[in-house]
Amino acid sequence: MQNDAERKIYKIIYNYFYKNNQMPDWTFLKTRTNKSKEDITKALQGLMDNGYITWQDDDVQSILMLKLDKSMPTPKSKENEVNRFYTEL
Q: pLDDT of 26-84, one tens digit each?
């Protein structure tokens, strides 16, 4: 079970990765969560312990998302949107 900090950081990471195809940096996470690096690290460790992510300590760029939280919507493929544009002409 995730606590509030873990859930918030997981959603931020998920949304950032979906939009930018890369993981956020420490500055972005600190700004969005209004938490210290230590608090963010603790939440990331909790996510790793629960099997949601894997990462190498002190390198947020190395985060890999292992499972999708049930409250997260499944992202639509961007490729389908492009194909739809050309097929509806």
A: 999 999 999 999 999 999 999 999 999 998 878 898 998 887 766 655 555 555 555 55
Statement: 4-87 belongs to CATH 3.30.420.40: no
- Structural domain spans, the chain: 4-87
Q: For the chain, what is the largest distance between any 2 Cα atoms, rounded to a whole number of angstroms?
A: 53
Q: How many CA atoms lie less than 13 Å away from 26 in the CB half-sphere?
A: 9
Residue partners of 3: CB distance under 8 A and separation at least 6:
43, 46
Radius of gyration from C-alpha coordinates of the chain: 15
Residue type, 61: Q
Residue 75, pLDDT score: 54
DSSP state of 80: H
What span, in angstroms and rounded, lies between the C-alpha atoms of 84 and 80? Answer: 6
